[in-house]
Amino acid sequence: MTTQFHALHRVVLPAIIIVMLGMLSCKKDVAPRTDQTTKAHTETVTKAGGKSVCYVEVNSNSLLNTGKYTLTTGGQQLFDIAIIFAANINYNTTTQKAYLSNNPQVTSVLVNKSTQIVPLQNKGMKVLLSILGNHQGAGFTNFTSRTAAHDFAKQLADTVSYYGLDGIDFDDEYADYGTNGTPQPNDSSFVFLLSELRSLLPTGKIISFYYYGPAASRLSYGGQKAGDFVDYSWNAIYGSYSVPNVAGLAKSQLAPAAVDISSTSQSTAVSLANSTKNNGYGVYLWYNLTSTNKASYFSAVSQVLYGSNVTYTP
């Protein structure tokens, strides 16, 4: 039994039951298939002012809440990317390999993709699955070979394909490197993992990086860098402004502002939006959306980023 929460959120979630991917999610040894009855019809949405990204703790909140907010002027969705928080990278002590695991709440979102994921995609939004450590020693920075990194990347790519997701988000927290006799972080692992995942994903799929943990200081190896494979990166410290140092990413791909909707004051959120706009960055990060109507709070920021209030539609 474990708990999981984002860096510095100070929000502890209920204990979760670990469910192996091979039982309730896609199976690594079975070729993914596309369910034609639930395939998303994606609309083209154009919105000046950059992208808004939102993590949702699906243990306690519905991912669909992200689709309830639109710009009053123009009608575009406030959130361009919704992130399912979170699946886990676990460790099999028998095989001594990392594997992807989903708790019951994450599994429910995935297997009910036709009602939980596709409706958001039909609004023009992208849906990513965030991957988080789980205190078992497995993480993104301690694969000891490209083959091992490929094996885990294959599980991620199969999951994206099977559930019709738009990509993967990496959050290098709570791995507890060294647990179960696992290795400590090394310089090649994360770059290998990103490289392998990018080669396995179809064109247009997204890889994002929550700029935190050992991975944040291991972003280049052998002439390759994380920015060669990652589409976006965002600051991990809520209520602050800090530019992720990911070489190869343009300002349009970076979010130096990070907001915890439940605890960051509106005045701070507006100040962070002004800094984002004035400094020419293209992404704004939100975390911890609940079912509470936050249109007024969002409108203050949206006025800065998009020149529009926000409308809430339950």
From TrEMBL:
The chain crosses the membrane at residues 7-24. GO terms for biological process: carbohydrate metabolic process. InterPro entries: Endoglyc_H, GH, Glyco_hydro18_cat, Glyco_hydro_18_chit_AS. Pfam families: Glyco_hydro_18. GO terms for molecular function: hydrolase activity, hydrolyzing O-glycosyl compounds. Residues 50-308 form the GH18 domain. Keywords: Glycosidase, Hydrolase, Membrane, Transmembrane, Transmembrane helix. Belongs to the glycosyl hydrolase 18 family. This is Glycosyl hydrolase family 18 (Putative chitinase).
